[in-house]
Amino acid sequence: MFLQQQAQQPSGILGFLPLLFILAIFYLIVFLPARRRQKKLQEMIDNLKAGDKVITSGGIYGTIVGFKDDRIQLRVAENVKIELSRNSVTALQSPEVN
To answer: How far apart are the first and last CA of the chain?
Structure first.
């Protein structure tokens, strides 16, 4: 009886195939889309220019007026400028947002 149970269990790499399959599906569902989003965001940050209307990670809406190294100068109101990290920009404002 013990020999029958041993013969029925998959051996070696065949036992890991279901686990590898699940990990591959997990990678395709979770990590690949996240990597694409991160790449698209970094591309958008690299292409920022003065005059772009942006939204920051803190929810601040403003217009880029200048750059200093890895920072941006953002005009958030008349005569009010703040300096932020480039990486704090999360999106460009859509045209219908005032």
So the answer is: 77
